[in-house]
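Progress report, Aim 2. The chain analyzed during this reporting quarter is listed below.
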Amino acid sequence: MLKKYLNSSMLSLWHQIIDDAQNIILIGHSSPDGDAMGATLAMFHYLKALKKSPVVIMPNTFPDFLCWIPGSQEVLNVQHNYDKAWRIFQKADAVICLDFSAYNRIDEMNQWLDESRRPRIIIDHHLNPELNADLLVSDPQACSTSEIVYCLLTQLGYDNLMTKECAMCIYCGMMTDTGGFIYNSNRPEIYYIISQLLEKGIDKDKIYRNVYNNYSVNRMRLMGYILNEKMVYLEEYKTSYFSITRDEMLRFHFKKGDAEGLVNLPLSIKGSILSVSLREDSEKELIRLSLRSVGEFPCNKMAAEYFNGGGHLNAAGGTLYCTMEEAIAIVNKAIKDYAPLLKDNKC
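Predicted structure tokens for the chain:
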């Protein structure tokens, strides 16, 4: 039932890279989400079981609601510990990149990776991988990188030895990258994996609460403000969008992760097809966009065409280097240009 991602030559190369390495660096993408954290930390626990010395390095901070994930306290943040992270990276025997396959997803770490000559493994589920790798494991059909990691660890014979902590990481990644299994999650294999993770003793209800019922009062007030004051609903196009500015983030004492999931809320409107969120970055002069859809509307195509981004059919993102007003104008143009698909989409 589970995919075997490694053929005989790939399996041999995997063992060659991992067996010959002691200090192994695990890298996730900038603004790490549940899948980036889940996949890297699941691999972290696996390598620890092999008596290796893995280190998880992230380009910047992960959200507070992911602090409970086993091993998260050992994650090294480049933004806060640049020199230490650089020294550790320089000592690496091998590098494993998880949940990204493009240099622009890791900020200033892209130069480190570009100049590195260490053996490199990439494990990802995004379309059109750009990074070169000694070993590439890529499956855009997977619901998450964490799903791929589970299949890999099973193929490598780790399933019987998998710890509860490792299983928690994998479940978190799968759950968050499907919005709590409400999109990109119709394949039977996903639920088989969940059943096996439950056998490891995970408490899936508690994991859900840790992620989705763990927000501050300020975040709840921000959510109400967005729905009441900022959401624009275009009934003709079955589409909603909203924006969040730096001033508004200050007003609601915004913390990293407070925008997580907000883009899904307008999809609760009857007949809604597409939801787009725009947010001013708190540190850089750019606008971050998230797109969610239902049915067959291609978020990834819209994100690639208009927002310098990409992703999956029903979940994508992008970046615009302009003012919020200009970004909103681009969003409106994209919506109008995609009007035939939005009006005809059978959700």
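The two ends are 29 Å apart (CA to CA). The chain has two domains: 8-212, 217-344. These observations will guide the mutagenesis work planned for the next reporting period.
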